[in-house]
Amino acid sequence: MAMPPTRRDRWLALALLLAVIALAYLLLVHPWFTRPLLDINQGIAELQEREQRVQSQLQQRTAVQERLQQVQAALEGRPGFLREPTAESAAAALSSRLQDAVASASPGNRSCTISNRSPLTDTARDAQFPRVALQVRLRCGVPEMAAVLHTLETGSPRLFVNNLNLLAQRFQASPNETGTGLDVSFELVGYLRPGAGSDAAAAPVEPAPEPAPAGLEPVGSAMAAPTDPGTAEPVEEGTHED
After folding, report:
1. 54-102 residue pLDDT tens
2. Which of 43, 48, 202, 210 is spaced 20 to 30 A from 24 at the CA atom?
3. For residue range 160-209, what is the model confidence (pLDDT) as tens digits?
4. At what angle do helices 61-77 and 35-59 cross, to 10 degrees?
5. Residues 122 and 133: beta-carbon distance below 8 Å
6. Distance CA 116, CA 201 (A)
7. pTM for this structure?
């Protein structure tokens, strides 16, 4: 005759049933149903957060467009690239701007003069921003040289001074007076807009001019020939004062 189940047997059976149910849930329900649903809910929450960010950015569209137009108008007033379409015209503009800076720092070239200025060939023909450069040599007083460099680097369009070399020189006008000047050489560099020189490069090359008669030197070669550093006149004492 079977013994009737006791209270302890009932609790033990209930515990075993719960353990089987939990094991079945972990092995069959959670990995196949619960986890995918949790991942879907997380994806929905991320998409909702992203939508809120996009909506917030779209609401700022008008303000961003207005600000962009203001910045573009300001950049057009202060262009960073050279305005000229070709490297040749840009080199001429650089030379003119250098002359204006020297004349502004030293009216009449009393205490600052240009010893040499010659264009440099751009070796990086395939660069994104075509480079235009001048090799410059000046003989100036210290305050005038600082004013020239400040004018060149803070003007518009933007120019850069590279490979700056300074050599101090002393000049004596009388036994009781001495003066200090600078012999300065540097590269004055500017950049054209991307593709600015492509039209000029694609243009047909004109035939070379006929050689000049014997005894006559071409004007272009005379202008491009660098000045001998030794021929520059020394700056007299007192000429570099403000």
Report:
1. 999 899 999 999 999 988 787 776 678 888 888 899 999 999 999 999 9
2. 43
3. 999 999 988 765 444 554 456 889 999 999 998 876 655 444 444 344 34
4. 50
5. yes
6. 28
7. 0.50
Name the band, by pLDDT with cuts 50, 70 and 90, for residue 236.
very low
Measured CA to CA, the distance from residue 85 to residue 145 in angstroms comes to 30
Kindly tell me the sign of the dihedral angle through the C-alpha atoms of 17, 20, 26, 32: negative
What region does 61 belong to: left with phi over 0, alpha with psi -120 to 50, or beta?
alpha
> DSSP code of 206?
P
Give one DSSP letter per residue of 65-106, joined into a string: HHHHHHHHHHHHHS-SSBS-SSHHHHHHHHHHHHHHHHHHHS
- Digit-coded pLDDT (tens) for 116-154: 999 988 766 667 788 899 999 998 888 999 999 999 988
Peptide bond into 31 cis (omega under 30): no
Tell me the sheet residues that pair with 45. none
Distance separating alpha carbons of residues 135 and 151, to the nearest angstrom: 17
> How far is residue 153's CA from residue 156's CA, in Å, rounded to a whole number?
8
Asked if 126 contacts 194 with a C-beta cutoff of 8 angstroms, the reply is no
Query: Which has the closest alpha carbon to 164: 134, 187, 144?
Result: 187
pLDDT at 44: 94
